[in-house]
Amino acid sequence: MCTLEQRGRVFVLTLTGDGEHRLGHALISSIRSALASAAAAAAAQAGPGACLVTVGEGRFFSNGLDIGWAGTSRARLGELVAALRPVAADLLALPMPTVAALTGHASAAGFLLALCHDYRLMRADRGVLYMSEVDIGLPLPPYFMAVLRAKITAAQALRDVVLRGRKLRAPDAKEMGIVDAVCPGAPETAAEALKLAEQLAARKWDGAVYASIRISMYPDACRSVGIVEESDEEKARTFASSKL
């Protein structure tokens, strides 16, 4: 499933084991629990400043939804699509910066999971980013598309990802602006992600303010996963309370 470890002000969420980290009900529930625990621990610690790193063990970051469990049942597949939506919401509203260490393949819903993080680092020696839906004949759920549009801002890059099913290796993903840094291998990717997370946590940003700004930055994606943007009055109160 997954584990959560706190290293100072950095929380490390690890998708454990050498499997494909398929997003079924059990793993989705485990991830949501870990994210809630990280948010609670950050709120309880002395002073602001925290960051989350997500990393996968083995060859995969995540190979998407658990289609083995869903089989040919569209109803079961729909269950998983609906169950993953709150995970996207949890990440997009998490009151701290988030970093995905892509030490393996990230496909379909696994690619979406990576995109829900603020930063992405990817290994150069192996692994691809791949939205497989066009190749396997499945439509993209509306919230998938909203997140993709928010995070892949170059029109041609978005076209190639969703309409061409292009498998992106790290240099191409970096050129398209989808990943922020390319590292030689898995150990270096994890290490650089932790280093970035420590730098971000050291800024000691107010978590509620950070989350509010992120939600304002991606309004369509956030609405698509069920996050309601603060009203102007609520934003004013958040601003005022951060200055007290």
From TrEMBL:
Gene3D superfamilies for this protein: 2-enoyl-CoA Hydratase, Chain A, domain 1
GO MF entries: delta(3)-delta(2)-enoyl-CoA isomerase activity
Enzymatic reactions: a (3E)-enoyl-CoA = a 4-saturated (2E)-enoyl-CoA; a (3Z)-enoyl-CoA = a 4-saturated (2E)-enoyl-CoA
Keyword 4Fe-4S: no
InterPro entries named in the record: ClpP/crotonase-like_dom_sf, Enoyl-CoA_hydra/iso
Biological-process GO terms, alphabetical: fatty acid beta-oxidation
Alphabetical UniProt keywords: Lipid metabolism
Similarity comment text for this entry: Belongs to the enoyl-CoA hydratase/isomerase family.
Name of this chain's protein: Delta(3)-Delta(2)-enoyl-CoA isomerase
